[in-house]
Write a structure and sequence with these properties.
single chain; 4 helices; mainly alpha; 122 residues
């Protein structure tokens, strides 16, 4: 029994010595500078998001996963981009079909007799 205990102690000492030697030889590695407060590494272009942009997204990791505020921001940004693209597609489709597009000159014309008159405050 004493032999096993002695064997474990020697192995722990050898492991510790190897760890210490590797730490001295290789150092602690390069440490990156901390990000300034209220900044993030998560970035997307202001418009024209591509699949490659989404694949390159990186989020800060926290104890329980990714930083929720960054993920929420990215999802909001992607949702807005999808909405803009769908609106552009709908506008192009309606324009190609000859349907007046909202916001165009044809859609802004009021029908005859639809003019409003100010009401008397009395």
């Amino acid at each position: 029994m004493l032999t096993v205990l002695l064997y474990l102690i020697v192995m722990a000492l050898v492991g510790g010595a190897l760890f210490f030697a590797a730490s001295v030889v290789f150092g602690r590695g390069e440490e990156m500078a901390a990000l300034p407060p209220a900044t993030t590494v998560t970035a997307l272009p202001s418009h024209g998001v591509t699949g490659a942009d989404v694949q390159e997204l990186r989020f800060q990791q926290t104890l329980r996963g990714y930083k929720a505020s960054e993920v929420d921001w990215a999802l909001d940004r992607l949702g807005t981009e999808i909405d803009v693209l769908r609106a552009q597609l709908a506008e192009a489709t309606r324009g190609a079909a000859g349907i007046p597009v909202e916001g165009s000159a044809a859609a802004d014309v009021e029908p005859a007799g639809a003019a409003t008159t100010p009401k008397d405050p009395a």
